[in-house]
UniProtKB/TrEMBL annotation:
This is LSDAT prokaryote domain-containing protein. Residues 40-217 form the LSDAT prokaryote domain. InterPro entries: LSDAT_prok. It holds the Pfam family LSDAT_prok.
Amino acid sequence: MLVSPERLRLANDHAAVAVRPAGLADLAATIGTLGLSRPRPVVAVVGGAGLMDDDDLTDLFAHLIATAISEMGAVAVDGGTDAGVMRMLGRSRESESRAFPLVGVAALGTVIFPGNPGGAEAVPLEPHHSHFVLVPGADFGDEAPYLARTATLLAGGAPSATILVNGGEIAFEDCLLSVAEHRPVLVLGGTGRTADRIAAAAADPASCRDERAVDLALSPWVRVTDVHNRRAAVTNLLKLLRSGPEI
């Protein structure tokens, strides 16, 4: 039996609509209760929650990623916490007064909101998201399969793409899960850590000892672009969102 969506009251009196699927098996039915029209383009944003230079990347989100999402009439999906790429995307959406839906997918044990204290390392939900999918799990990374599938379900057959910005260990799984969903992944090289490891593997796979990075770099579903070439990065993202599932 499905439970009706709930309304969360977040920081600074922001509100969001949330659903709580019991597991992957009922995710599709639960997503259907969010009230988001389908099919429509979807951008999944994955990557760093920490160890990032906010000053260097804030402009990237405000004038590249958020603009592209808005121009395409797309839905954005991310990990929903008030940190790293999720904080930047939420704040970019708010500061630029863009109305695109922003869906955070987070494991209940990893987040804090009224009525949910989370676990010992839990962090607040990012307050500028419009929707949340709150899934079972106690550890960061438990949300990864749900995030990948949520993006697919929200697209409903429309084009979708995943953007990797920076990222730690979980980012590898996020990218692999996107590839498994047959969703193209745009790696923004120059943003640090996992994104740079995959970019380095793409440039010279023979000398790279990171097998995960090489596997992703050589995948036909993965495209690497240099974040410092903003025009090329925007062009690549819009191309993926217009071209459908085949690269």
